[in-house]
Amino acid sequence: MWTDFVVRRVFGYKGERLRDFFDDLELELVIPKLLLYIYEIGSCDNVIWLLTDEFKSLRATEVKKKFEPEQQMHRHLRIQAIKNVEEPEVRQYVNLFEDNLSMSAAAELNGRRVIAWPIVNVRNQSVLAYVLMTDVKAADVGRLQDRVGRDLSFMCKHIGFSFQHWEVQRLSYHDDLTGLYNQKYLSLVLENEILRSQRNDKKFSVLFMDIDYFKMVNDTRGHWVGSHLLVEIGRVIKQRLRKSDYAFRYGGDEFVAVLPGTTAEGAKVAAERLRHAIETTDFVIDGQHLKLTMSLGLAAYPDHAKTHKDIIKMADEAMYCGKNKSRNIVFVAS
Asked: Which CATH fold would you assign to the domain 2-172?
């Protein structure tokens, strides 16, 4: 197999650990293996991956009191680390280096040595991402700069392929009508939130939303009006969520929201805010004024479910319980 030949030819038998790295194309799988490989090479405390725009945005001089990242595709691919690290700490590391860092560099922060490497796109020489190694022993800095730099220069072509694959996926994860994320992307987000919750010992919540009597709108006003209503409903939902939350069109007139780091109690407040927003919005489509209500089901991880399929199921069932009770309601799973 060409993988075996290349790994042995370039790295010798010490490169056996890279065999799995080259067997994967998904960026979700490539990044953790890359970080683990670098972590195992030398003595350091942590290895951090940052997309280029994440690296640049963290170089801002003012540290936010509360880090609330904008909702972005594959947020977990934009910044990742072997060990959990907070934004102010990453910001300190990033500000040690130039904004347009194009080759490996070493710096010192409070007596701790940090090394940074750019991941360069071999096709156009643009920087795709950066890898930072923190708390490196002084005696190892030169050796690691050479060793990791050499390895990364060999890996970057494969990483570039993974980026191309990722960009294609991004196009397939949005709902064509509303512009929200679609059901295909939902499972990936939930799986990632479960892993992050397990790692950080935090909770997250899911809201399952259904527009009350929406079929009546389609039957009496027509599907053209119904489609434009869905667009406006999606806009209202996204506006009422935090930037760090995720909004999805699940199908038809059903929507889902994933609220990272949010308990059931906090999610209920957010759900009531969404319910009230839909109820009080005057939807105007081609001069027609329409009033709508929405029923919401709420489930939290790990209180109500332990898997991504079960938490959606529990939130969906809670929503139907609310509909059977009164509609225009927030119902919490039990």
From this structure: Beta-Lactamase (3.30.450)
Instruction: DSSP letter for 174, please.
Output: B
User: How would residue 304 be classed by pLDDT, with cut points 50, 70 and 90?
Assistant: very high
32 Cβ partners below 8 Å, 6+ apart?
80
CA distance 241 to 180: 12
DSSP for residue 243: T
Return the bridge partners of 130, or none: 50, 118
CATH of domain 183-332: 3.30.70.270
- Alpha-carbon distance 295 to 253, whole Å? 11
Domain positions in the chain are 2-172, 183-332
Per-residue pLDDT at 19: 59
Quote the CA–CA distance of 13 and 9 in Å, as a whole number.
Answer: 9
Residue 296: Cβ within 10 Å count = 28
Q: Name the packing angle between helices 223-240 and 214-221 (round to 10°).
A: 140
With 0.70 as the threshold, say if the pTM is over it.
no
- How far is the CA of 246 from the CAs of 29, 37, 181, 207, 224, in angstroms? 22, 31, 8, 10, 26
| 2-172 and 183-332 in the same fold | no
